[in-house]
Amino acid sequence: MLTFKAFSALLSYPSEEMRQALPEIAEVVHASPLVAARERDALSALIAEIGEGDLLSAEERYVDLFDRGRALSLNLFEHLHGEGRDRGAAMVELKALYAAAGFEMATSELPDYLPVVLEYLSQRDVAEARDMLADCAHILASIARSLIARQSRYAAVLQALLAVAGEKPVDPAAVKPTREETEALDRDWVEQPAFAGAPDISTPATRARPS
User: Fold this and answer.
1) pLDDT at residue 63 above 70?
2) CA distances (Å), 122 to each of 62, 84, 203, in order?
3) Cα 158 from Cα 39, distance rounded (Å)
4) Which has the closest alpha carbon to 134: 121, 146, 147?
5) What are the φ/ψ torsions at residue 87 (nearest 5 degrees)?
6) How many domains are contained in the chain?
7) 200 found inside a domain
């Protein structure tokens, strides 16, 4: 469904091409039966933020969030396995799932990168998408809490995904606006980076970001 394609784009590095597509993304979000009114309003605010100002400002906001710390990593298995051996096995299993469905990755991003997962789900039926999102709902909720703690509008995407999965979105009132939790994990990230190298993908929804 186009809804997941839109979510994938919103969580991707904000290239100029992606920003030009924001009006189309907004139309998809507004028309989607999977997005409730509350999530729709929050997503609209995020879309407006990504599109405001110059491209450099949007890029800086994105990097400051998603490329600085483990708590906000969009690589899902990073939250489950860290650098353990189980992470590699989980990657192989997920990549095999893509291959079994007839999809071959065209990116150097890892298969558990959330925009890539959402790109895959955009080609599957809603039932499969709900099941897959429900399986990782605890990770989505963890990322959502960290984004809410940083008062980031990007939390809107994670909240919408939780709702699609049939899970209760994180209550913002229960999350204290602070950076303490993420700063501790940020230090771990700096000392032991999960991976390096510039990603490259051929689709606008998961456009590569510079190293």
Assistant:
1) yes
2) 23, 30, 13
3) 10
4) 121
5) -65, -45
6) 1
7) no
DSSP one-letter code for 42: H
Say how far apart CA 128 and CA 68 lie, in whole Å: 32
DSSP 53-95: S-HHHHHHHHHHHHSS-GGG-SBHHHHHHTTSHHHHHHHHHHH
Could you tell me if residue 199 is inside a domain? Answer: no
Whether residue 202 lies inside any domain: the answer is no
* CA pair distance 58, 128, nearest whole angstrom: 33
pLDDT tens track for 92-126: 889 899 999 988 877 778 899 999 999 999 999 99
What is the Cα gyration radius of the chain? 16
3-class secondary structure, 170: coil
In single-letter form, the type of residue at position 176 comes to K
Residues for the chain: how many in total?
A: 211
**Is 20 within the bounds of a domain?**
yes
How far apart CA 172 and CA 148 sit, in angstroms, is 6
Q: Which domain holds residue 27?
A: 2-193
Closest by CA to 126, choosing from 114, 137, 134, is: 134
* Closest by Cα among 134, 88, 133, 98 to 114: 133
The Cα 62–Cα 14 span in angstroms is 7
Place of tokens 């940020």: 186
For residues 69-81, average pLDDT = 83
